[in-house]
Each structure stands twice: as structure tokens, then as C-alpha cells.
Amino acid sequence: MTTMRRWEIDAIGREHLRLRDVPVPVPGPCEVLVRVAAVGLNYRDKMVIETGRGLPLRFPFTPSSDLAGEIVGLGEGASRFAMQDRVISTATPDWIDGLRPGTARTPAYRTLGGYYPGVLAEYLAMPEDWLVRAPASLDDRQACTLPVAGLTAWFGLVERAGLRAGDTVFIPSTGGVALFGLQIAKAHGAEVIVCGRTEDEERTRQIGADHFIFAERDDWMEQVYRLTGDRGADVVLEVIGGAHLGQSVELAAVGGKVCQIGALAGFDFTAPAMPLMLKDVTIHGIGTGSRSALERLVRAVDHAGIKPVIDSCYPLSELPTALDHLGHGAFGNVVVTMQD
Amino acid sequence: MTTMRRWEIDAIGREHLRLRDVPVPVPGPCEVLVRVAAVGLNYRDKMVIETGRGLPLRFPFTPSSDLAGEIVGLGEGASRFAMQDRVISTATPDWIDGLRPGTARTPAYRTLGGYYPGVLAEYLAMPEDWLVRAPASLDDRQACTLPVAGLTAWFGLVERAGLRAGDTVFIPSTGGVALFGLQIAKAHGAEVIVCGRTEDEERTRQIGADHFIFAERDDWMEQVYRLTGDRGADVVLEVIGGAHLGQSVELAAVGGKVCQIGALAGFDFTAPAMPLMLKDVTIHGIGTGSRSALERLVRAVDHAGIKPVIDSCYPLSELPTALDHLGHGAFGNVVVTMQD
Amino acid sequence: MTTMRRWEIDAIGREHLRLRDVPVPVPGPCEVLVRVAAVGLNYRDKMVIETGRGLPLRFPFTPSSDLAGEIVGLGEGASRFAMQDRVISTATPDWIDGLRPGTARTPAYRTLGGYYPGVLAEYLAMPEDWLVRAPASLDDRQACTLPVAGLTAWFGLVERAGLRAGDTVFIPSTGGVALFGLQIAKAHGAEVIVCGRTEDEERTRQIGADHFIFAERDDWMEQVYRLTGDRGADVVLEVIGGAHLGQSVELAAVGGKVCQIGALAGFDFTAPAMPLMLKDVTIHGIGTGSRSALERLVRAVDHAGIKPVIDSCYPLSELPTALDHLGHGAFGNVVVTMQD
Amino acid sequence: MTTMRRWEIDAIGREHLRLRDVPVPVPGPCEVLVRVAAVGLNYRDKMVIETGRGLPLRFPFTPSSDLAGEIVGLGEGASRFAMQDRVISTATPDWIDGLRPGTARTPAYRTLGGYYPGVLAEYLAMPEDWLVRAPASLDDRQACTLPVAGLTAWFGLVERAGLRAGDTVFIPSTGGVALFGLQIAKAHGAEVIVCGRTEDEERTRQIGADHFIFAERDDWMEQVYRLTGDRGADVVLEVIGGAHLGQSVELAAVGGKVCQIGALAGFDFTAPAMPLMLKDVTIHGIGTGSRSALERLVRAVDHAGIKPVIDSCYPLSELPTALDHLGHGAFGNVVVTMQD
After folding, report:
1. Domain C3-145+308-337 sits in which CATH superfamily?
2. Do B189 and D304 contact (CB within 8 A), yes or no?
3. φ and ψ at C242, to 5 degrees?
4. Do A187 and C210 touch (CB under 8 A)?
5. A155 to chain B: nearest residue by CA?
6. What is the distance in angstroms between the CA of the first residue and the CA of the last residue of chain C?
7. CB D155 within 8 A of CB D286
8. How would residue D258 be classed by pLDDT, with cut points 50, 70 and 90?
9. Per the database record, which ranges form the Enoyl reductase (ER) domain (chains A, B, C, D) (predicted)?
10. What does the pLDDT read at residue A88?
11. Which segments in chain A show pLDDT lower than 50?
12. Cα–Cα dist B262/A325, whole Å
């Protein structure tokens, strides 16, 4: 096969989205050729297509960062993988371990499907360092949700907040990161309170939520206090942001950690100073995680039996429908598969 | 001596402040009698007197939390100290070690000179557990500044942010906590940038600041970027709060820590989400520290030769003038001494 | 009821063990009266009775530290518990939170059934600070195993080694601490390898062990390497000690943690320096944990559904048989109950 | 210049050491050419030459790992440095950040002058990733002591033990790592007790030691207890190893950390279990540190004004004399310079 399909935009805007036939790429030195099997979509992908999000995109531009696939070609010197190895991508490929790159003035926002080309294509040639081995216990549609949704929840809850059994975790959503947070927290023996839409209660409990609060009710904060006997949440997965962060601080236990992950409610957050200071609360800014952390997540998924929650799968050609789905809100992850 | 002087208010408001002659108290079981030598004032003391700050004060109420003094009486069963031991108070006496008390719903704001009676008196009877040994290397006027100003800077920089040699610390003030922060950071081999008023440059440099930025200049943030080669500050001692916290987040290095300590600019803070998340920044809410931490600070003061910066000392009778001084801004600490 | 039964020794040695009728004690100020329901035995109890273990015992001496029971009396000023509250003891009662007591020269070995009187009695009057609430999800026979066996495994794996999902844990035993370690590790989503006697394989796997290695086989270390693809164990629960610690260091992964808990194989341990240094391995000395940590374990037990493994229960009068059982090796915990 | 001098051995043993004239190497892709100015010697270098230390040496083999020099040539694609940049080497070049490489079965002992060729040469072509910028405040003879002696002390005291002001540090030697430990501890405001030879007392105190104990005296352990009021040392820099580690554990404070660094007294260490367990002591195995940690040390050296202690400098041709000096024990570091 010498040609393949790839989504591209030549300018910012949904109306510029095109599925094109292009040549299959050839891996360069220390690169591998990956046959993509599935791509996990994130809300950010929709924003990048529709607004560019201020990123320095080079057109034609291919969106998305999260793939699961198979090694089908090895460039000169490539040695991390063998042919047929199943792999997933890292979304922030320059962040190997320890501190992420960047400076105070210029944070490094170099992601696949952002600064670097994205993964909505049948084949990709990419540096072998940008990939990690896929978990043996997941199929491709499940595995492709790890690089952003899974890793963000993992990095916040486990590597920053230091979650442990018996902790109470509060998660105010049922999106992709949120449900990974629920599953990762349960895998660590935590008690989890999810706040979501009434119609999602049953399936959220089936995934393991100990308590479910109806987001539509006025007294949802009061309910968190009651469920915890006023103790509050040891860890909050703040996936909404804006003024909601302030509510997370008020719900945090003494010594609690708030993982600030999402900015759905705005790019400026606000919070009250007194509970932050009087409860010794810590706020961790979380933007995915390192490649090492992704490797640890893969081990955790295999050993703890975590199965990512997939709301829907769309074939490659139906990307626009998948993006619309994301816009309406998903219960867990939305995935695109290469096979029609 | 059977009577002594003590400041009291019978109602909220500066106009109710009275210096009264009252009986010297008698220590109960497990209490000690302390002859107070000096009291360190904090801006909070002024606010409590003038506004009550929402605290459940019981009148007549004595303000202030930070004393240095001497053990001159032992109640039944008291065993932590001997007669003539020099001591300082803990401002948050219920917080011995580990986690502070309180719940998510009701943070524990039980301080001396707040929930508990304060220390602006010649003698005090108090539980022996509320005191720690004073540093041998400081006189009383210096030692009385440790319980809040010193401990807050120590707890944030050292016990939460994990400061170490070579780190860059940014401190946007020259008040009591700020100058302790400067001295503690220098004692750990850090590089310190202070932002303050033009007239304070020279003495701030004398205390050890590596760089001084004029707060009045529009480009002060730009200067922090320049001084750090865009790297930013590893630790920020945020003593101003409000929207200033957002600036601290923007100045923080990748992996940087912001200690949120002060609320001079308002009790709600705001900050931009993207640099927080893309730089893996952590915000620590800091409200003094535990008694164990105060004991570690005492050891640090003795071993590292830290000498607290005292702007002015006032005799007990001139408390109102001392409070006015605080209101105008002090360079370091304002202290009240018992000897006229 | 005014008299009760209590085990006592008047001198060191099993031959001095007596079950006596003594008056029910009366709680003093800030004390509570506990009706003991069950006592968890530890190997240490047997050693204290038989050898004194160098402790400053005051005769008549009652052994053992771990009880579950009920509050049936409140001394003056006691306020932490209400009548009928179910409680368990802390074995190291002076260690509330943060650092444990003691000095370099004189480590504080002040335990119940060691320095302090023990708990093998139908009723006990003790300071209320020495107790914590029992987990709601356990009966008394289960709950009484937490204070030493459960807490030691928890403190090592969770609070010192920072265990998390996906980690590989190696446990070279099936005793009380070991099986708690297995259960706590599984509750955190870890992969667990247990090394034990052939006859214990099946029940160890039923409790959750992912792999079981026959301790009798010469190549057990080789098998740990093989099972981990040479990666080694992220955490080792070293409950044997002596030269076995050296083997644990050799089996530890890069960056691995070894929790040194037991001294069955001798009070001096040895280990090779090169793997310790070249693999950045950390050895944590573990001797139970703080009261705060016990409270966290109680929450973990309730939320993660951990059910302690009980090998056998003996009535109070059969303590000597129970001690013999301990001497032969138990699969999990040996418990004494008050009801005959 | 097309030829240069380089020390080589063609077989294990001091008698095979030769200073040869060889061609100046040419940097390959992503390599740089370094003109070496100074080389810091470690006791390990002597052992590698004399015994091979079990390493897979390829002959002719050049020993030593620690250089300071200047970039004088850039291979294709090299971009981390510019011409004339002053650099120092990393001794464990594969360890960039986070976890070091290696497995449980096969620790990665891939150092310069061990697995990789060493640096006792006038010029070296090496991957640019193996170097970091030299501290601006040190000359070459000082800077070349950082990669092993400086980094090992830094990594143990600061990045593993979390040293802070007021801590008491015990250092039982006056060698290269030991004196770096003294200086780094003092730069963090710690109290430092050094145990060494009588003749070294004065100069050790001049470098900053608060207390000096004569190693020859029988009661040196007693003196550590006395100097700390029985509290013990918060951190011990164990550079001797063997049975000495046991003494370090006995001297450690409750919650203390022992950095196991040296194996002068043997490759097997022994220690008593009870004080390890009853004092909650942690032993950290330390084998240099990551490149990121070296960069942090460089910043610390520049900001805290640390000046490495150099016992003697030898010209390149006098390497054998320098090695003899190491064998007799040095006060601080022994350095070889390229200029005769």
C-alpha cells in the first residue's frame, strides 16, 4: 500500500477539515512507521480545529495526539521497538521524565496535534522516542485513550496528589479524564464521589463510584460535606476550572490536594484565600504527564485491570460526527477507528 | 507583684482598646506562668481589633499571638519546662505535628489573639503545650517574631516548597514574613529576588537580596524574567494575594511552587489556568505551621545565624502607635516590649 | 461485674504465665474503660513473655498490645469517645503523628505489652488518647489485628514506600504482617509476588497473590527476576531480616524501596553495597506507625474492603496454645477472644 | 594540533599505565570536541586501573570520569553548546533525569572511565548530551571535581535526604565527597559534625565544620551523642560503609537519613535492626546522580558560593603520583591539569 487517508486542515475552522489521500510516509533515522488502529479524541482537538487555540500550526495540519497502533516499519537506527509491537503515543513527546521542558516566560506547549503534526491518519512516521508499549490487557480502541485522558488523571491523582487507599476523591464530571480518575481512584482503594448528570448515575455507579451527586441540584456542595461527615475530599479532580476551582478548595479536606486539570469554565480561575490557607490545601496544575509516567500508567492498567470507558467509536471518515459528539458532552471517551 | 497590665477590647474597634491593670493569673494544671518580655505584632492583629475579622471573640478580649518570655511559674503536673526557661508561643496551638485540625466545612482558625485569648499582657497563664523553647541565639525582641512571621515563611519555603541551594526565590514585599523569607532562603543557599519600594533597596540588599526590583516600575515582571534568563522563580512567596497570585504563577519556573500566604489584595485570588497547567506549577496554601515546624525553625535560626529584622520597638503603652506603624507598612517586624 | 480475668507473669518465662481474677479497673481522668472483645497476638508477645526482650517490665506484667473492644466507661474529662463506641488500641501510644518520640541514643520502645501494661484482660482502663475508632466493616476478631500487623504493613508500603497501582511488590512470607501487606498492595492495584511454603500456595493466591514462589526451591530469587522480566520489585516487604535483607536489595528494582520490618533471622542485617548504591535503592526501617496512620488504615480497610486473614481464634484461657501456634508459624493472624 | 596525549592501559594493573601520543579525535554527529583543562580523580579510578573492578573494559582503556574543559569543535547537528562554552562531564551519562537506567538483575554501571572510555586526555570527542555547562564561579580545577565528588554529596544530602537549615549532619571523613558534603550542608544552614584525623581539625573547621571529632579516639560515637544532646544526626553521609553503616544507624536521629555512599570498609554492610526500625531511619543507596541533578548543583555552587576543596593538583604526566596520593588519603579532591 502506498497511499493512505489523513485528516487535514489548510486553515483554522471546521469548514477546512478534509480527509485526503496522501502517500504513506517513510520513517527517517531513529523513526518508526506506525499503522494506526485507533485515535482517542480530546476536547482540545475540537478547539484546535475550530479556533487554533493560539498555537503555531503549520498547514496542512493534522489534528489529535492519541493513537494506538502497531510498528510496521523501522527507520535506520531505531531500536526501542520490534516489528509488530503494539504502541501508544505520548502527547507531549519532549517530556521524558522529571521536569517538563519550557520556561517561566514560554511554557512548552509542544504536543502532537498542536505544535507537532497530529495522528488522525492511517500511517505515521515518527521518532521512536515518542511511543511507549501498549498495555497487553487493552485492545486498540481502549489503549488509544491513555495518552491524554488516562495520563492526565493518573499524573494528577497518583504522581502529584499521592492518592492512597481510604482517601476520598471528588470528581465533578463524567467526561474522559473524569472517568479515568474514577477508575484509577478505585484501583487504589479510594472512596469516590462523582457529581454528574442525573441520567449518568447508574452507569457511573457501575464503574465504581461510591456516591453520585446530581449536578443539577443546588445543594451539591452540601452533599459532599454530608457524605464525608464534613471532613471533605482528600483529592479533587478539578476538570472544570474557572470559579469551580474555588468550590473545589472549599470542599477539600485539611491537607487536601486539588488537581487543576480542565478549563471548560474559563481560562482564569478564582478561589477563596482563607480555606486555601487555613486548610493547608495544595493546588497542582496538571497538563498531561511525562513518558515515564505513561509507562507507569500502562503497568497500572495491566495489573489493576482498568478498562477505559468508551462512549462511542466512529470510523475515520466520520470524524466530524465524532467532534460534534464531543461538543455535546461524552460519558467517557470518544474514539475514531481506522477500520470502516 | 499581684497586678499587671494587659491590653483589652470590650467591643470591636480601635476606640475600645484599653490598657488595664488586672490580677496576675495563676497557672492551672499542666499550665505555666510566663512573664512576657516582647510581643511581635502582625497585620492580622490590627484587623482583629478593628474588624473582628469574623472571629468569635469573647470580651474582654486581648489581641496578638506572638510572645517571647520566661517561665516564672509551674502549674500542677507541668513538666515540659523548668523555671527560667526562655520560651516563645505557638500561634496555632492545637496544631502539634502532621495535619492541622479542622474540617472541610469548618477550617480551624483557633489562634492566640483570635479564638483563644491573646498575649499583650505582662504575664500569661497558658497550657505548657502552647510553648516552645526560644532560640538561644536571639534576644526576646527578636525571638517574639518567630511564631507567625518566621514560621509562616519557614513552613512555606522549607516544609512545603522544599527549597534548596541554587533555587531562585521571588519575594514581592519587604514586610515581616517577606524578610524572614529572604533570610531563610539565603540561609539555604538560594538566589533571592525582592520586589519592593525604592527607598528599601539598600537595606534589603544588606540583608542578602541578590536582586532588587522597584515595585513602582511597570516592567517588574519583565525584570524577573530577565534576571532568571526566562527560567522564572522556583519558589514564590506570595504575600499579597488577590490578582497578584496570577502574576506569581506567570513568574514561576516549570515545576515551580507558589506559597499563598497573604491576602492584602483581597480574600479571593485569581490566576490564569494555562501557565499553571503547562508549567506543572503547585500552589500551597500556607497558614502558619505546626509546633514541630516551629521547633525546627528554632534550630535553623540557631544554626544558620538568622537574625530577624525589626523595624521598630514600642513600649507596651504605645500599642496604638505600633498598630498605626503596621498600617503604614513596615520593613520587617514591629515589636512591643514590656519594659517602658 | 467487679472481677475479671487477666493474664500475668510475675517473672520472665512461659512457666510464670497465670490467668488471674483481678478487680475490674476504674478509669481515671481522661481515661476510658474498655471491655475487650479480642486480642491480636504478635510474635513479639511470645518473645517478651519468654525472654523479656530486654524491656523494663514491671511485674506482675500483662503481655500483648492489640485489642478490639467497646467503650463501657468514661473517666472524668474523657471526650474522644462515647459509650458503646467500638475501638482498637494503638500499640505505640506516644506516637500521635509526624515523628515518633525517642532519641538517637535511646529509641523509644514504649509499647503496650512492653513498657506499658498489655491488653490480655477482659477489661482495661487506659488513656482515651491510646485508642482509635474500629473500622465499621470488621468484626472484633478481625479488627484486633490492625494495631501492629496491619499498621506495620500499611506504614511501610503506603506511608514510607509510597506504593501505587502497577508497582510490583515482593513479600517473602505468609505471616500476619505479610498477608496484610498482600492485601494492602492488592487494594492499591499492585502486582504481588509472595514467597512461601508449598502448602500455602492455594490460599495465598485466593487472597490475591498474582504469583507464588516456593520458598523451598533453590532458585526463588531467579524466579523473582523472571517474573518481573529482570525489572525487580518496586517494593519489598522484608519481614525476615538478617542476611535476607541483602537478598531483598538484590531483588529491588532501580529506585526500589525495601521496608525492613522483621528480625526473625537475626537482629543484625547485612546487605551488599553495590546494588544498593547502583540501583538507588532505599531501605526504610519500620516499627509500627503513628496513631494518625492507624486512622488512615481504618479508613482504607472500610473503603477498600480489606478483610484481615485469621489463621485461628483461641479463647482467653487457651493463650498458651495460641502462643505455641505462633511459634510454629501461622498463615496470617492468631487471635484470642474473650468469650469462651 | 593533530596529536595529543592520553593515558591508557592495555591490561589491568598500574604497570600497564602509559601516556601516549594519539590523534586528536573528530566529533561525530551530535558530538562535540572538548579541550580538557582539568580532571578530578576519584578513588574508584585507582581501583579500576589496579583491579578492573569487574568492569567490561575495552583496551586500550582510558580511566577517569570527571573533566572540566571547553567546547572547541561541534559535530554535525550538535546544538546544546556553542564554541568556547565551558563544560563539565556527567559521570553516569545515561542518567538524564528521574530514574536511572538498569534492572534489578543488572544494575547499570555505565560510567565514563568504566564502561565508557575515560577522560584523562587532552581532547575528547563525546556526545553533547554527556556534558553540562560549568559553573561560572569556579575555575577549571575546581569545576572538574563536581561530576562525582560534588554530585554524590549533593544527591545524597539534598535530593534524597532533603536536608534543611537547622539539621545536624554527621560526616565521618575528610575526603572529596565528605568535604563537599560539609560545604553543601553548611550552604543549607545545617550544623555539621565531622569526624577525622587530628591533623585535619583546623582546616576542616575553616571550611565550616561546627564540630570536629578525633576519629582516633575510642569514644567518638559518644561524642556525637553528647554534641547533639542525644538527639543524634538528622543526616549521615556514610562514606565508609561496611560495619560503619551500623554505627551511622546508631547515631541517626529519629526519622534520620543515612546516605550510603562509600564502600571503603567493604562491599557488604551490616547494621543493627532495632535502632533502624525503632527510630524510623531511612538508608538511601547513593551512586552519583542524574544530569538534571548536576545542573542543579551547578546553580547551587554559583548561588551559594561553594568553592571545592582541592588537596593537590598534578600535571597530566604525573598521574601515577596523583594516584599514589589518593591511596594515602586526601583532604578533599586530587586534580590533574593538562598544562604542565
Report:
1. Medium-chain alcohol dehydrogenases, catalytic domain (3.90.180.10)
2. yes
3. 65, -135
4. no
5. B280
6. 17
7. yes
8. very high
9. 13-336
10. 98
11. none
12. 44
**Longest CA pairwise span in chain D (Å):** 63
| CA dihedral over A91, A94, A100, A105, signed as positive or negative | negative
Residues linked to residue D33 through DSSP beta bridges, in sequence order: D73, D125
Helix B244-251 with B220-227: angle, nearest 10 deg: 20
Instruction: Please state, in angstroms and rounded to a whole number, the distance separating the CA atoms of residues C319 and C333.
Output: 14
D65 φψ region: left (φ > 0), alpha (ψ -120 to 50), beta (else) = alpha
- Residue whose C-alpha cell is 466545612: B105
Backbone angles phi and psi of A29, in degrees to 5:
-60, 135
How many CA atoms within 13 Å lie on the side-chain side of B16? 17
D72-95 mean pLDDT: 96
Contacts D162 to B, Cβ<8 Å:
162
Look at the alpha carbons of C231, D296, B149, B145 in this order and tell me if their dihedral is positive or negative. Answer: positive
Q: Provide the shortest C-alpha distance from residue C98 to chain B (in Å).
A: 5
Is the domain spanning C150-285 CATH 3.30.70.100? The answer is no
Residue A133: per-residue pLDDT: 98
CB D309 within 8 A of CB D153: no
Cell of B339: 519594659
CA B188 to chain centre: 19
For residues B101 and B92, give the distance between their C-alpha atoms in angstroms, rounded to a whole number. 10
> Nine-digit cell at C178?
505479610
Q: Report the distance separating Cα C145 and Cα C130, nearest Å.
A: 16
pLDDT value of position D266: 77
User: Could you identify the residue written with the cell 520490534?
Assistant: A82
Q: Where are the beta strands (DSSP E) in C76-175?
A: 86-89, 123-127, 131-133, 168-171
Helix (H) or strand (E) holding A306: none
Decide: A75 and A28 in contact? Cβ < 8 Å: yes
For residue A318, give the C-alpha cell.
Answer: 466520520
The contact set of B with D (CB < 8 A) is 158, 162-168, 184, 187-191, 210, 296-304, 306
Dump pLDDT digits (tens) for A115-127: 999 999 999 999 9
Averaged pLDDT for residues C161-189? 97
* Residue D254, all three cell numbers: 529519629
Q: Which residues of D touch C238 (CB under 8 A)?
A: none
Cell of A200: 449518568
Looking at every residue in chain D, the average pLDDT score rounds to: 95
The verdict on ipTM greater than 0.90 is: yes
| Contacting subunits of C (3+ beta carbon pairs below 8 A) | A, B, D
**Spatial distance between the Cα atoms of B95 and B130, rounded to a whole number of angstroms:** 10
Extents of the domains making up chain C: 3-145+308-337, 150-285
pLDDT category of residue C218 using cuts at 50, 70 and 90: confident
CB atoms within 10 A of CB A218: 7
Chosen from B158, B188, B292, B302 to mutate, greatest number of chain D CBs within 10 A: B188
Is residue D199 left, alpha or beta, with left meaning phi > 0 and alpha meaning psi from -120 to 50? Answer: alpha
